[in-house]
Write a structure and sequence with these properties.
Arc Repressor Mutant, subunit A, about 220 residues, 10 helices, alpha/beta, five-stranded parallel beta sheet, Rossmann fold
Length: about 220
């Protein structure tokens, strides 16, 4: 029987995918406990208004690039488990989602019953990834360095980095976040220091590599040890 108290947020910009995920949630959560979001700003607003027991998150939706949405959610709402639901089945991407704090990874190609199994596993406090994905070997040094650097960003700094990647100016970011330009400049300075880069451009390049699941030091910077 569906648990009437469960609150689950389905975040994907494609209505058909949201529909499939809602179908998978039948028998797990009541229809009234399921909330949908088609853009990351909506995800943030919903989580700010009410705690959720689980978030099903697409990696690519309006307002986020690559792992940035996942990183933001883990920083801002660390008690809320996140399952990444993605059409990208690259094993390196799946592994990095788990390293960035996802409790599970569901490929969009799997059937509804497999989705249901994965969701139940995470709601019971466990994790789930496709059976053929080996997560037992330790992460490489570059990935560990990437996780450490990004994990040091505050939720607000993650949002600023996301907006820098979209080409927004300090004035525009300040308006969107409801803060002063001086505050945005302070965030940008902190981001540059934490990512080990020297300019906004290098930070954006780093963010684009993050989105592609890659990490290299910016030109003139030392490679991670």
């Amino acid at each position: 029987m569906a648990d009437p108290d469960l609150r689950i947020l389905v975040a994907d910009d494609h209505p058909l995918v949201r529909g499939a995920l809602k179908q998978a949630l039948q028998g797990i959560a009541s229809e009234g406990g399921i909330t949908e979001a088609g853009a990351f700003d909506d995800v943030s607003k919903i989580l700010a208004e009410a705690d959720q027991d689980l978030v099903l998150l697409d990696l690519t939706m309006p307002g986020v690039q690559g792992f940035s949405g996942l990183i933001y959610l883990r920083a801002q709402h660390p008690a809320t488990p996140v399952i990444v639901v993605s059409g990208n089945e690259d094993r390196a991407i799946i592994r990095r989602c788990i390293e960035f704090g996802a409790s599970g990874f569901i490929p969009k190609s799997v059937d509804v019953e497999t989705m249901r199994t994965a969701i139940r596993a995470v709601l019971e406090g466990g994790s789930w990834t496709p059976p053929d994905v080996d997560l037992s070997t330790p992460a490489d040094k570059e990935t560990s360095e990437l996780v450490r650097r990004l994990g040091s960003l505050t939720p607000q700094q993650v949002r600023v980095l996301m907006m820098l990647s979209e080409g927004l100016l300090n004035k525009q970011i300040a308006y969107e976040l409801g803060v002063s330009e001086a505050t945005v400049k302070a965030h940008v300075s902190a981001i540059l220091q934490k990512l080990g880069v020297e300019s906004r451009t290098q930070a954006v390049i780093a963010a684009s590599k993050i989105a592609a699941g890659q990490w290299q030091a910016a030109p003139g910077q030392a490679q991670p040890a």
